[in-house]
Fold this sequence. Notes:
heterodimer, A: mainly alpha, B: elongated
Amino acid sequence: LSDDASLIAATLAGDTAAFGRLVQQYQDRLYNSLLRVLGSADDAADIVQDAFVQAYVKLSSFRGGSQFYTWLYRIAFNLAMSHMRRGHKKASLDEMKALAGAEPTDGQPTAETGLIEQERAELVHASLAELSFEHRQILVLREIDGCSYEEIAEVLDLPVGTVRSRLFRARLEMRDLLSPRLHIEKIVDTR
Amino acid sequence: MSDKPSNHAPGDELLSAYLDGELSADERAAVEARLATDPAAQQLLHELRSVSQSVQALPTESLGRDLSEEIVRRARETAPISGRSPSAKLADATEPSRLGDTIPKIRIFNSRRAWIWASMALAVGLLIMIVQSGDESAKKPANRRDAKFRCPLHPNQHLPRPRLSPPIASFITESMRLAPRRPQPSHPAKLAADE
């Protein structure tokens, strides 16, 4: 049995601490993905909690045919989609900047490389937030979580062929958003 | 939907999957042959790779706190998996106090009209029961009729069959005549399906 399978079996046998260890194992990974999908730290934290609670409630229905985190992601991404459909707005630009990386607070000059990295992260995060929800979530699953096409298909309940075509279009949309912004960064870079 | 077709060549999609190592051996060979001779395909692959690397380079954020205790507490409140038998959970769900909180109170006897309709319905029901029992008594053996009117507290004691006085019978007949006809479901299964 894998670690996850042992913890799931222990949880089903009544050991709630085992479920706590599953939470500890996946909470940050899930939070980081949801943060990029939802664009809001508070919303991401809320959905992480709701997803784990739902996973606990439905745990006896988990058949083990897939990885636990794939199953958990499916729950979480469904919740995220419902959350977005209820009309929750994307994060403000200020919040996105904050999420992209800590800004200098002590007034000291920041290393140029650090500044460029931070600016790039802000641009990428802002561009990500402008994608359609479908494109954002598939890009996050692939680029941030490193999921295979098969795993993405399972999380999003799509055929693998659709995953391939949607991911391609998401990258094209992201390229169109990033190109003019990264061109500005290039000028900064050549100083 | 965002999966609408674009003006890209059909093989362009393979470039994205090539980047991810998600092609079959034949597809990969075809893409590599194209890349060897097609500068536009090389450019697109470069752009797709840049996009991929840009997103991958985003800093990893963490919650900064352990949610496990809070989640386990919430989860146990929502649906305790163990330590309780299914029958115990069922008992919880059917506790009178909880039922009182969850089931809406239906106030159907607040008006005089409701009382009249209820009385009429009761009278019609009684009439149907009596008519049916009369029919059955004509067809069935006497011991079945006796069983039907046996007192539940004293099974050995037989009760006399109820007889309607003429005024009550005429009231019931009149009620049936005045009662509005309602459309009846053709079949119970169809009614369930419609719901």
